[in-house]
From TrEMBL:
Sorted UniProt keywords: Signal, Transport
Membrane-spanning segments: none
Lineage of origin: Bacteria, Bacillati, Bacillota, Bacilli, Bacillales
Signal among keywords: yes
Protein name: Extracellular solute-binding protein
Length: 443
């Protein structure tokens, strides 16, 4: 049996197991059909929902604390279980296997739209009197951008914002003051990084790793290609700023890995090796995994500073990542699924996610005051620095943006290997335009 067939067989087995784990394993025909009534439906018989995470960090602990336990406490007839296929299984392979998740968590709308498995939630908003105005506009604005004719394919679950993580031990080791509680510019952050990028007793220390062009571009909410035409946008003045700051980061003496095959160091160098001084990254990318490490007895001496940005953008942060929940059009348990979505956007459920380390999606400053209260690794941290600055709405993306990401990786490597900025931009733009043209012809 080849790898793909083996992985799909595992998915099917998992799906069967999940169904068996419902409260009595039975579902009536009525529950297996979408309710066509305009009236809310009371769930009076056992229903098991399948929850699938696609393209986002969401640990098993987070799922249990934020989704499974609260939902099953709220709804006595609903159980909810997470489907975890092998990492090699793609989203199209999952759906083609016959496995039907009821709810999808993450940010994968282009793929889900292409597969025609997204549900327009507007009728469900009306049916259950769901008030979308309670949600932060920069989150709903991004999701609305995927609707060609006003469709709404998901509901924001949390605002995955960027912060600057810093390792206090590395700063202490080299006698460098910690980052300020006031927002720095990228130039100021790189000045700090130059003092902290060095080799000591054979150990390489990294001052700051922003992970290249795409991540610096989030400070300006830049699309790589035009959302409509697919043409490269890298020739803009804004992208020139991004290329220049990325080049400056790479040119810090000692920053580039010695094997000359990559341009970044990554999360584990901060979390596990503990030899990175500063890492700008999303909350969800680090807080959950660091809490799991803490529970294993590994605790990093770290804290939080506001995310740096460009000088004319001070007071703003990076574009936020919208972690959302989508109800699949193939689900046969849509009333139960939407009631779960509605509950997860209630004050009660959003307070739970805030206390467990995710910034709430709803407009309620009181909940932000409770952020991280249940997360051990956040105890004593400068939580207030998470909320310094206004997050940017994520740029409207083109369906081919993921397909041309390889050319952005190549551009990073070109910069790292010494190619000048203008030549790198020209080369990347030409490659991107050719690839998009090819993809458009093959649609």
């Amino acid at each position: 049996m080849n790898t793909t067939k083996s992985a799909l067989a595992i998915i099917v087995a998992l799906s069967v197991l999940i169904t068996a784990c419902s409260k009595d394993g039975k579902r009536t025909d009525e529950q297996n059909q979408q309710s066509l009534s305009d009236k809310p439906v009371e769930i009076t018989e056992p229903v098991n929902l399948i929850f699938y995470v696609s393209g986002a960090t969401f640990t098993a602990t987070e799922f249990k604390n934020q989704i499974k336990d609260p939902v099953e406490k709220k709804f006595k007839h609903i159980t909810i279980d997470r489907l975890e296929p092998p990492s090699t299984v793609t989203v199209p392979e999952l759906f083609s296997s016959g496995t039907v998740p009821d709810l999808v968590f993450g940010d994968n709308y282009h793929t889900l739209k292409k597969l025609k498995v997204v549900e327009d939630l507007r009728p469900w908003f009306k049916k259950y009197n769901f008030d979308e105005s309670r949600i932060k506009p920069y989150l709903t604005g991004y999701i609305h951008s995927f609707g060609d004719n006003g469709e709404i394919y998901g509901v924001p679950y949390n605002s995955n914002q960027h912060i600057l993580y810093y390792n206090k031990d590395v700063f202490d080791k080299f006698g460098v003051p910690y980052p300020s509680d006031e927002q720095m510019t990228w130039e100021q952050a790189l000045d700090l990084a130059r003092q902290l990028t060095r080799t000591e007793n054979g150990v390489q220390y990294i001052g700051l790793d922003a992970e290249g062009l795409t991540y610096y571009s989030r400070s300006l909410a830049l699309a790589t290609i035009d959302p409509i035409t697919g043409k490269s946008l890298l020739g803009s003045p804004e992208w020139l700023r991004v290329f220049n700051i990325t080049k400056a980061n790479f040119e810090i003496p000692g920053f580039l890995p010695k094997d000359n095959t990559k341009y970044l160091w990554g999360r584990d160098v901060f979390m596990k090796d503990r030899t990175m001084a500063m890492r700008p990254a999303w909350l969800a990318n680090m807080v959950g995994p660091m809490e799991e490490l803490r529970q294993q007895g590994i605790d990093v001496n770290w804290d939080i500073a506001p995310i740096p940005t460009f000088a004319d953008q001070l007071g703003k942060t990076r574009e936020t990542q919208v972690h959302s929940i989508t109800m699949t059009s193939l689900s046969k348990k849509k009333d139960a699924a939407f009631q779960v979505i509605q509950y997860l956007l209630s004050d009660e459920a959003q307070r739970i996610i805030s206390r467990n380390g995710r910034v709430p999606a709803i407009i309620n400053p009181e909940l932000e005051k409770e952020y991280g209260a249940e997360v051990g690794t956040l105890k004593g941290k400068k939580i207030q620095n998470i909320f310094v600055g206004t997050p940017l709405q994520t740029h409207k993306s083109n369906p081919f943006e993921t397909d041309i990401a390889k050319y952005m990786t190549e551009a990073n490597l070109d910069l790292a290997h010494g190619l000048d900025v203008n030549s790198t931009i020209r080369k990347a733009s030409e490659n991107i335009d050719k690839e998009v043209e090819r993809l458009q012809k093959n649609q």
